[in-house]
Amino acid sequence: MNPQSDKSIVSILGLTQVIAFFVVSFSVPTIFNSYHRYLELFSHFRFQYFVFSLLCTVLFLIYKNYKSAALMALVFSLNSIYVLPWYVNLEEGRGDNAVSSLKIIHSNVNTANESYKKVIALIKEENPDIVLLQEASALWVNQLASIEKTYPYKKANPRADNFGIAIFSKYPFESIEEIYSGVVDIPSLKVDLMLGGQKITLISTHPVPPISADFYRSRNAQLKQIAAIVKTIQNPVILIGDLNVSMWSSDYDELEKTTALVNARKGFGILPTWPTMLPIAMIPIDHCLLSSEFKVDNIKLGKDIDSDHLPLVLTLSLNLIRKRDF
Fold first, then answer.
1. Which of 10, 68, 192, 230 is deepest in the core (most CB within 10 A)?
2. pTM for this structure?
3. pLDDT block averages, 10 residues each, the chain of length 326
């Protein structure tokens, strides 16, 4: 082997060792993310740890660094436990008991984004029954006035900050309520509507991002507040929004356990939604959680609308034979 090849091997091995160091340093401690908000913050990159631990394992094997390969294989196995189950769904299909279907677009449009036509085009292409927008400013609500002929039932609470919210629906609202977080006073929407002769409840919420200790506590307080509301609802429930948390956070686990809701992603993969400007770092923080009366016929990422989030497009069916069990 010539000297140039030796240098190439050294550089590749060196880079692999650096990557491996960071993967081990972040992915292993974040198992204990309930102990500190910094650990919780880095727990959201579990899919990246999964991919890079596999890459490091392969590269170490190629260059016969077997001890390092064995270590990274263990780290890969650890991350697989968190990632691979999202690609498997053992639940039965839609079945004969479905009474109706519902298609939803959820999108954090980004207050500063001005690509209104792209959102309108997405809505026209997908033709959902309900459109939910977060970070909806007054300008966003005004620009989407053209869809109101198709979606005559609307409730909007536009804001100049990043916490405006709006819903457009083909179905009339039985009732609609604004819910405010007691910590930072930002609105969520709780909507009752009829689907296939059955009243269902849809809650859309958008907690603050956990970028500081106060915001971390505020996000968790809002999630707990919404969870407490869900527990009081007897109807089939849909909880949807930019929750600013991934499935690998202990705070997210608490939300699922408290509400008995299930993430619509189950069986469809990770579907990362944010940040679009940095694809290698994208994580799943936009979620739709469902009570057991709902089945997911499909969930996918919508087209890029120039927001920092990708939309979620869901098709659900309502099956009244299935009931929640808290």
1. 230
2. 0.92
3. 51 92 96 96 98 97 96 98 92 61 97 97 98 97 96 96 96 96 88 95 97 95 96 96 98 97 97 97 98 96 98 93 55
CA separation (Å) from 266 to 8, 51, 214, 216, 225?
Answer: 42, 19, 31, 26, 24
* Nearest alpha carbon to residue 84 among 114, 55, 46, 57: 46
- pLDDT value for 324: 53
User: Is residue 318 within a helix (H) or strand (E), and if so which, with residue range?
Assistant: strand 312-319
Query: How far is the C-alpha of 90 from the C-alpha of 314, rounded, in Å?
Result: 19
Instruction: Print the domain residue range for 233.
Output: 98-319
Cα angle value 190/196/199 (rounded, 5°): 30
The answer to whether 89 and 266 are in contact (CB under 8 A) is yes
Comparing C-alpha atoms, which of 40, 5, 3 is closest to residue 254? Answer: 40
Whether residues 126 and 220 share a domain: the answer is yes
What total of structural domains would you count in the chain?
Answer: 2
Residue 14 covered by a domain: yes
Same domain, 72 and 107: no
